């Protein structure tokens, strides 16, 4: 039934698209040509990949590696041509073309530090210039980043104020947690939506490789993230739309923000442009223990891993067809003995002019990502836990040869990703455009793990195998009508609709008790179990937006999206999400002195939502086994009124560029209030339903500021020193629990408590930690937030003679707290864990009465409680240091070669009350609701050398 | 003129094309955007339980819930009453540091209360639902109804014997006897239904269950009257299954070599008792290749792993009622009446039956001591001991507990040790009537 409906939808959409094509006029012959070169007005250097666009014809071209462009077959007539390039102010030329004319143009573009005329994709309603947008949009140009990025999370990390990417572990394949302006939800995912070339992708992490039954930590306790399937070398730019004020037109799932990734496209150049990258690198762990035990007994198993990557791409084309094709191969060893990963990716992007009014853009990519992990984390049958716990571990031995048994645990994950999308752009009239997008994201995982016969804790062997598949089908239409009433007044109307259907399927097999050694399959086990899950969710909405442009300096935008969702309760109707924004380019006023630079003021207000899960609204019973028989167990109590939570956001800000563009400042204040917040309301156990029920009862707030400043401190002919600073703050609070009682998000210390941060770390506190004597306990103390309240990113770049560039970036995160379950688990079991060495000395010399209150609590096993292991998690890390050196080898005219040496995570500072491990360790991976330290390893440090050759 | 006509026609066609385009697009957009009806497989929607075919699974649900509750409560109550001693894992499948010294704090006992409440609530729900959805004739002939009442009775008994207070359906706290009162009603209903359809085993189980509840409530006449109807070789247990770890006998699973050696018989009364008497009701063993538990126990470090052998595998049932228990109820009733010699005769009849040396009591107090010992031996690791300790403590019953059971040994019990599970945070923080 579902497949038939899906087919019907695709058919209808296809029919619509083709009817549009056939009801449109066809191509007519062109005769004139324009060609020329685009250069930087300050340096005189040519600008490759700049854009040239004939407004009336909706045709364009990009400059080649030498900054040259050509557009042929143009009808004689008068045209407005726009020239733009990322980071430069756009400019226009009015031209008249006669038959057979070849018009030669030389165009200078001025740097535009705050990007007023930079084109951005701000929502569903097509593109806009930055000056028109009332909200803050983070923009990253991949080419501007000097360091080589091993994945997209590395590429984004620290680049945009308010966007935080926290790593989760040093295991191979471990993805990070992305948070934009903190947490807007306590029950649903806070990962932002991800779009690639207009195609909606899966945002949440891949499933964790764990068996379907038994303890859910039996694995490596890491999760790969789908965003990292995209190869950084294929990316042109990334736009980050931060909050509800900007994401309104994305509807019911956009409250946590949207990341738009755009891959490279071809350009019409006289010859193909090839680009090759070769990378070699190493990664290792920096100490994370005490001076006595810098690696907390894990040293014998740690190694320096080797990584390598090779990529090759070509882009080119002519006026009618442009292409970009790439291939990437990467592999590497992790720092743990079994950790390995390899990744193969190919991408083919095409842009084709089907007629004078039709442009087709196709984006396609395939990635194969294979990951092998060492059993780690809070896994009694894993390497790290048993190494940390020494003789008190699950085999009663700290000897390497005994603990080596845990390396027989095979954990393999094979992720396949296929993303295909096409956008048909149809210019119906000179000022009326339509865009149709069909996108399909296929994410599949083959997860299998095996403990062989004789394995400690699983002596007869256990095997689990899961086939998981997640597809996202997006159908999207946007219409845009541009109506210029007079030279000063212009309206831009946009309307459209989007439907997103996700299908998740998982079939898992589990087998135990194998006959003997060897590599068995599931059916070799004496006992086998099977599991199946299928979940389909449909979201759809329509939207309209009007932008009023007065004198190209006052911009008012009003918009509305109305959404439905299959997961809403049956009594809930469609959900409207309004928005409004203002943008005022103050520096365009007549009284403004150009020497003051440019200044824009902006304000935005909007709503966005987050929908509940597929089964949350319905009262359900779980079919569970009772031996060979089936039994029904109360599962979800249900709520027919269940709807999305709604985040309303207001933001104000300014963009300033002054001192001859040598100081650029971007400031934003935001305030978010999430109403109808979905809380997992704990049910009264004596009423039978033990599972929490999602209810729209809560109210949350998030507020903060974001400052991004870049200053050119020194600018000489062959030398420049650029300093950058990003500061973002986030203060969150639970304003109202809606009558629900306080509840824990993780079963440990991550709590939702009225008046406290989202989430708060709560636990008993010792008020006299350093006093010699018995501890004095304060019950249920709220330590503080689990998410950082302050993030400061410092960056500096030196542009040296011979085009050598040296850059560095450090990041401080602070104001938050974290619970360390790994230390708890060792000390509760009497392990001589080095954090208690001083206490052990006193105990060994019968001076227990000299123990401080904290030592008595942490170091005497019978006193150990999890509450005594909550630490302030402030840290500073040197995220990146890079040196880029041009290589004087040109394989073609206009070709460029560079060599970049990059080091990451090479220095860490932690709060002095944070004794061991690392604040960027999580319990089980990127999908965790709160951050807490499990028996894991910190993110690794790395050094890479990358050779890039363009020819 | 001709061109003008053509332009006019094109203009009109263009307008029609535009209109056509927008119409088709609008229709397709509506088609794709407005269908949000999705029924996903997997979880069963509530209305499906009204179908007669669902009846058996509904009743099985009580059993599964009771099995889980019994397994969990039996394990933790066995630890704090020192039927077993911790020997390893502290959290997963293990015994927390506070439970190791006999404490059952309200911030650590959610799961026991929650599982017990789910079991007894699912019994109430099942009976109500079956009465609403089955015909009167079907109800009258239904073995399922009798079975549902029986599971309901055992669920309430489990709660009543182990928890300090009762809460029913989100109400306020009341005496734990409220659970036992309901258990008695449920057993009576089960007995009536079983007798009406000639289900002898169910009828005996209901009678035995009711005898144990009446004993706890101090209705000695009723208890003895029921107990006397039960054959000595009668046994009714809760089966466990190996299908998945959640369905296994948790007491066995937590002490098995694989994956945990989390508790031991070392430093319990049953260690020395079995060494002395070799009573087949309290067997334990040791493995020279695995001399200690799977992890350290606080200051003690690794402790000897003497694994219980009452449950030899993960599917071994936990006994809910037995003829032997009935004899002990009768013996206790005799002690209450002061007939300690008669009581000792009944107690020793059990010992003779299993081939171990008889107790030799010289007075009433010693007879009470032996009754306490014998109930511990007979009902070892069946989630009954904690309730017995509380009952005797509340009623100041004479007779000694063994020192290892009363104070502990190498790992002493806290002087404020708990003899029942409290209403935990999960109920306290959600129930507005508390």
Description:
Chain A has 951 residues and is mainly beta. In chain A, the strands form 9 sheets. Chain A has a 22-stranded antiparallel beta barrel. In chain A, strands 10-15-16-13-14 form a 5-stranded mixed sheet, with no helix packed on it. A 4-stranded antiparallel sheet of chain A has the order 3-2-5-6, with no helix packed on it. The longest helix of chain A has 21 residues, at 2-22. Chain B has 17 helices and 9 strands. In chain B, helix 7 (177-196) runs antiparallel to helix 8 and helix 12 (323-336) packs antiparallel against helix 13 (340-354). The termini of chain B are far apart. Mean pLDDT of chain B is 90; it is low at 1-13. Classes of the chains: A mainly beta (951), B mainly alpha (434). At the A-B interface, helix 1, strand 25, strand 26, strand 30 and strand 31 of A face helix 1, strand 1, helix 2 and helix 4 of B. Strand 30 (620-626) of chain A pairs antiparallel with strand 1 (44-45) of chain B.
Brief descriptors of the model:
heterodimer, A: 951 residues, mainly beta, 22-stranded antiparallel beta barrel, 5-stranded mixed beta sheet, B: 434 residues, mainly alpha, two-stranded antiparallel sheet, two-stranded antiparallel ribbon, 17 helices, 9 strands, globular, disordered N terminus
Overall pLDDT score of chain B:
90
Categorize the overall geometry of chain B. globular
Strand content of chain A: over 45%
Main structural class of chain B: mainly alpha
Q: Summarize the biggest pleated sheet of chain A.
A: 22 strands, antiparallel, barrel
Radius of gyration of chain B, in Å, reads 30 Å
Bulk shape of chain A: globular
> How do the SSEs of chain B run, as a string of H and E?
HEHEHHHHEEHHHEHEHEEEHHHHHH
Measured as a percent range, the helix fraction of chain B is 40-55%
Helix/strand structural class of chain A:
mainly beta
Oligomer: heterodimer
Overall pLDDT level of chain A: 88
Give the termini distance of chain B in whole angstroms: 92 Å
Number of strands of chain A: 49
The total of helices of chain B stands at 17
Query: Which blocks of ≥5 consecutive residues of chain B have pLDDT under 50?
Result: 1-13
Main pleated sheet of chain B: 2 strands, antiparallel
